[in-house]
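INFO  loader      accepted 1 record
INFO  loader      residues=363
INFO  predictor   begin
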Amino acid sequence: MKNFVTKGAAVAAVAATLSGACMAPASAMEYGERAADNAESRAVASLRIGRVGNFGDCTGTLVARQWVLTARHCLESVSNEGTQARIGGAVYDADSWSLSPVMDAGLLHLTRPVEGVEPAKLADSSPKNGDEGNLYGWSSSSLMARKGQLPVARMRVREILTGPGASGSPGGNGGDGGNGGDGGAGGAAGVAGSDGKVDGGVKVAPGSPEGVESVPADIAMGGGAIPADGAGGVMPKIAGGILEAESLTRAAMQGGDSGAPFFVGGRLAGLATAGTANGDPDLPSPTAAITTLSDAKSWIEDVTSGRDTSSVLTAATTPTPPRTPQTSADYVGRYLAGALAGLVLAVALGWFGRRKVSELRQA
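INFO  predictor   done
INFO  writer      dumping tokens
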């Protein structure tokens, strides 16, 4: 029962994040320890998302001289025009970005190379149960981060939610994945046909890019029936793994910093997608859903090397995101008009009042 509850909470958190229901970035370190100055911490970037954002909106990791890796949902919620990265005290503008079609990972291209910082090296394999690593987060919600100190938490992998080694997923333990193919060691579900019908537990979303699968959230995460959009919708299939990691100290995740890097053995093994201990992304969570990156290695290398240019977007080529005002600046014209109308009304009432008083005196 304990494992069911834990996985259910993790499923809910991840499904909400990947489906876009969680518009505010999540997963920031609170009560973490101050990070030592080393190769891992120097590669961690504080991100300011969009023109109206603030540093600490999300966290990223330098993976190439001009590329920062972060969570995809950080780059989907608002326009990325004006996005910046702060690395080693220097600020870099971002001019383009690329979003993984099959996992919660995105890349930001910087207008100039980062000097004096060695890009993080990607892990060749996914972490296993019991593996320990360091999770860093530059959240603006963190008291330590607001003082300019990078927090770090020591984390241990508690459970593999999807991917190789996952339990309770369709076709797990090498079982049959359905008509679409074998489940394999990771319990991968079978692939659906182009008609969008479920075949082996997988459903292709209408309008999805060719070759990109989607699955209902409850099937993808191996948990209860939790539709991605609350109405039976689908979300991009997790081609790689997602694991749940628990803090070994009093450090906790909280709203404000998705994309936090998870280093295992000195290599970048994953990034934070969401806190999993509760349903409220604004409350601290001692556990986190980590998107593993070993299966994203070829995509990352293709984009950062310039071999893949077709998936790189700019402000001119990015579809307009859902209108979600972040600050009062989004409606500055309306606020000024309202204030002016209020001022005119106050002057009119004052004049009317003085006139009435004058008439009473004359009477």
